Amino acid sequence: NGLRASPHANIRRASESPNHRAQALILQGSPHIQHLLPHLAQYVAEAHETPNPTNESPLGLAPPARCHPALLRFAAHLVIFLATAGVPLGNGEENSALATRLLVQYVDYLVRKDKKRLVAGYTSLIVDERVQVELYARFLASLSPSVPSAQLSPAQTLCLQWADEAGLDVSRIT
């Protein structure tokens, strides 16, 4: 890459940013896209190594990433785009697991930011139905921890309605 060989340190540093590397892999085309998810997942995972203890996950997941929310949103939307476009992710199960992990992390971000209306839609885009059910059940439990499990709070009832609209398996979630 010509930018990585630049005599200017700021250009070399910018060429290593996750955004630039993702753009470069996309522009290089089909055979290079398979390297994109591991690259993004690695960056997000490295951000998890320095957790933000003041913002714990209500879903009981790993500590939230310190990566920029826009990068996490980009990674989630890229996963959705690639799946919708039918672009093969390469490395089969490994990249499928990375795609799931990135979507789960984005759902966790949405929960922490109190974007309840969006949680069902993004959860429904996770390919693994078992992960969908487990994640959404945790989300519902986090909404009203003091309400007995036999009763649903108004917030939980509304979120279950959104889950049904998004095509989630509500009977398995509850």
Quick tags:
single chain, 174 residues, mainly alpha, 65% helix
Structural summary, described in words:
This protein is mostly helical. The protein contains ten helices and no strands. It has helices at 9-15, 18-28, 30-33, 36-48, 69-85, 92-112, 116-124, 129-143, 154-165, 170-173. The relative contact order is 0.10.
Oligomer: single chain
Largest sheet: none
Give helix and strand order, one letter per element, not per position: HHHHHHHHHH
In one word, what is the shape? elongated
Strand percentage: under 5%
The proportion of residues forming helix, as a percent range, comes to 55-70%
**Chain-averaged pLDDT:** 80
Calculate the terminal CA-CA distance, rounded to whole Å.
51 Å
Structural class: mainly alpha
Number of helices: 10
Question: Which residues sit in consecutive blocks of at least 5 with pLDDT less than 50?
Answer: none
Number of strands: 0
Radius of gyration: 18 Å
